[in-house]
Each structure stands twice: as structure tokens, then as C-alpha cells.
Design goal:
Elements (H helix, E strand, L loop, with lengths): L1 H17 L21 E7 L2 E2 L4 E2 L1 H16 L3 E2 L5 E2 L1 E7 L4 H13 L4 E3 L10 H6 L4 E2 L6 H5 L3 E2 L4 H15 L4 E7 L2 H4 L1 H11 L3 E8 L7 H7 L6 E4 L4 H12 L5 E5 L5 H7 L7 E4 L10 H13 L7 H4 L18 E3 L2 E7 L8
Parallel strand pairs: 1-6, 1-7, 7-8, 8-9, 10-11, 10-12, 12-13, 13-14, 14-16
Antiparallel strand pairs: 2-3, 4-5, 15-16
Helix pairs in contact: 2-12, 6-8, 10-11
């Protein structure tokens, strides 16, 4: 019973501290006492690097590690009984491999982690059954599939990709689109996004006229660009990852497409922003929190500070920022986001819970 109670205290400490709801120590870092309790281990699972897609987002898992470092610097996690513990983070990359994702879940059990934090995976079907069997909670996952929203051990704090996907057709409709294309990676998990887009399109009274899958290793995206412009499409929902992302947006510009394109901020990595250049000009972007470029938001300031203290070389991306909003980052009241300038790309932002745009 004592061991189970200790585990519950540890889970509570993780849930409260990593969600940014409280500081872990009232003393300054310089005067923080060394933790006296046993270390608490958590894990984050995700597609942090996918060789086949040419994508690498070390800043996403790095955000979890950065937060842990900041907590430890202030004396560690304080559980409900007042005992402080050092927080250890285990990073498990799935490489978008279901077998590897299942192994990550087994590792979580074997290493006796108290919780998974900020999961960034579309392979939840390989992960959640084992978490449920062993009563390991997943705190703040990116809910990219139904299991993350329905599992008894999943506790998301944002709408996640499903909310973002649902918002894109509605926003295109609000800009006047009547026929839209859904462009997505050629992945089983990504194909599951199409029904969500279809549901939203129907609700917004627009027709989903093209469904275009983009191969991860395609050198030439001209066929996919052409397919997305068929049937009079005047709006596009584009969720394209890795090297294909910039190629697709550049291809649209070369074809002279003058309709609106909506995408999600987490797919716009610094490399894609750099490679696409002004081809992204005017793109509509939905986000699950205020963008990381909103430097005046206290939570964003804390995130940037944590990341710099952990590893200055890591990008401060929206995907990383979304892993764990800090105090002051709440956007519970729907409000427009300011225009953001990111490497020559002026964009219009909206939250995944509101359909207000700022031109």
C-alpha cells in the first residue's frame, strides 16, 4: 500500500508541475536544497526523428527535458507530502515504426516510469493498451488519434491535431472557399485525418473535391500539386511533413494558385520556413496555443528561458512549445492572435478553438 501511495504522490507531482500550474520550489535556484526523495522517472514517446520522411524535431522532446531541468534546478518535484524528488526524463523515438512504438511502451513499464508526458505520436494504438494495463497515465499528449481522446489513462490539455484538422475547412469556408482539397502524407495515420476534414467540410457547407496523398520520399511533387488543383478547388488543407512540405508550397506558387491554403503550425519547421520562403506568404495557419512568436506572453518567455538553459541550439518551435504550456500561456478565452513574421513569412493565425482571423 505504501508503494502504491508513493506512486500516486509522484504522479500528482508530475501532473501539476509539468503542466506549468505551479513552481516546484519557493526558494531561488541558488538556494534550492538537494532533493531527498527517490528520483521520479517520466517518459516522452514520439516521432521525434523519422528517417524516411527526412524529419527531425529534437526540440520537441527537448522541451520536456528543458522543463525537467528547470524543475530540478529549483529543487525538484515536490509531492503532496512535501518531499522533493529529482525528475528524470526518458526520450523514446518511434521513428514512425509501430514495432518501435510498442517497444517504447514496454520500456516505460520496465523502467517503472510514473507517467508519460507530452507524447508526440500517431501510433497510440501500439502504446495505450499497455499503459492502461499498467495504469500509467499519459499527461498532455498531442491527441492525434481517437485513443488519445478516449483512453482512461490519457489526459490531453489541448484539442490537438483533431481539433486543428477540424478547424481548417471551417476557416477556408469563412474566407469564401466552396470546394477544397485535402493534402496529407502517405501514411496510414495521416489518412485517418481525411474523415475529420470531411466532417468539418460538411458542417461548413463546402465540398471536399480532392483527396491527395503525398509520398514521403517523392522527389517531384508536381503530380500531387496538380491533383490538388483539380475539380475547381479554391481552398486547400495542407498537412505535409518533412522535405515534401516546402516542395508542395513552392509548387502551388509556381502553378499560380490564388485560393487560400490552410495548414497547421507544427508542420512548419524552421527548415520548411526557410526552404519555402515567400511561397508561404498569406498562408492561413491554425495553432493549438498562442504562437511561440508571441514574445510578450509570460508563458512563452518562460519556455524560451527553459530551452536556452537546456540547449540554445534547439529551435523554439510551436511543436516544442505545445509540449507543455508554462504559466501565463492560457488562451481559454477565444481571441485573435497577432500577425506573426517568421523568416519572411507573414501568416494569419487562429486558435484551434476559435475561428477568428487577423489579416
Amino acid at each position: 500500500m505504501e508503494r502504491r501511495s508513493g506512486r500516486r504522490l509522484a504522479i500528482l507531482a508530475v501532473a501539476v508541475s509539468l503542466s506549468g500550474l505551479t513552481a516546484t520550489a519557493s526558494t531561488a535556484a541558488a538556494g534550492a536544497k538537494k532533493p531527498t526523495g527517490d528520483p521520479i522517472k517520466v517518459m516522452t514517446i514520439g516521432e521525434f526523428e523519422v528517417a524516411e520522411a527526412g524529419s527531425a524535431n529534437p526540440e520537441v522532446s527537448g522541451a520536456i527535458e528543458a522543463r525537467a531541468k528547470a524543475i530540478n534546478k529549483k529543487g525538484g518535484l515536490e509531492d503532496a507530502s512535501g518531499v522533493k524528488h529529482e525528475l528524470d526524463v526518458v526520450v523514446c523515438n518511434t521513428n514512425n515504426d509501430p514495432n518501435r512504438a510498442a517497444q517504447c511502451a514496454r520500456d516505460a513499464v520496465d523502467q517503472k516510469v510514473v507517467a508519460l508526458v507530452g507524447n508526440f505520436t500517431t501510433l497510440g494504438s501500439q502504446v495505450y493498451p499497455l499503459l492502461e494495463e499498467n495504469n500509467i497515465p499519459s499527461i498532455g499528449p498531442s491527441p492525434s488519434e481517437p485513443l488519445a481522446l478516449s483512453s482512461k489513462v490519457s489526459f490531453p490539455i489541448v484539442a490537438g491535431p483533431i481539433g486543428l484538422l477540424y478547424e481548417m475547412p471551417r476557416l477556408l469556408a469563412s474566407k469564401g472557399a466552396s470546394k477544397i482539397s485535402a493534402v496529407y502524407p502517405e501514411l496510414a495515420a495521416a489518412a485517418a485525418a481525411v474523415p475529420v476534414i470531411q466532417l468539418s467540410a460538411t458542417s461548413a457547407n463546402v465540398d471536399l473535391v480532392n483527396k491527395v496523398a503525398v509520398p514521403l520520399d517523392a522527389a517531384d511533387l508536381a503530380p500531387q500539386v496538380a491533383a490538388s488543383l483539380q475539380n475547381g478547388a479554391d481552398g486547400i488543407t495542407a498537412i505535409v511533413i518533412g522535405d515534401a512540405g516546402a516542395k508542395y508550397f513552392v509548387g502551388l506558387k509556381q502553378q499560380g494558385f490564388d485560393g487560400d491554403v490552410a495548414t497547421v503550425s507544427v508542420f512548419l519547421t524552421p527548415q520548411i520556413l526557410e526552404n519555402a520562403g515567400d511561397a508561404l506568404e498569406g498562408t492561413l495557419i491554425v495553432n493549438q496555443a498562442v504562437p511561440v512568436t508571441a514574445k510578450g506572453v509570460p508563458g512563452v518567455k518562460k519556455f524560451v528561458k527553459d530551452m536556452n538553459a537546456f540547449d540554445k541550439s534547439l529551435d523554439k518551435s510551436d511543436a516544442a512549445w505545445a509540449r507543455g504550456p508554462r504559466p501565463g500561456s492560457s488562451s481559454a478565452s477565444p481571441r485573435p492572435f497577432a500577425r506573426s513574421h517568421r523568416r519572411r513569412c507573414s501568416t494569419r493565425w487562429a486558435s484551434s478553438t476559435a475561428s477568428t482571423w487577423v489579416a
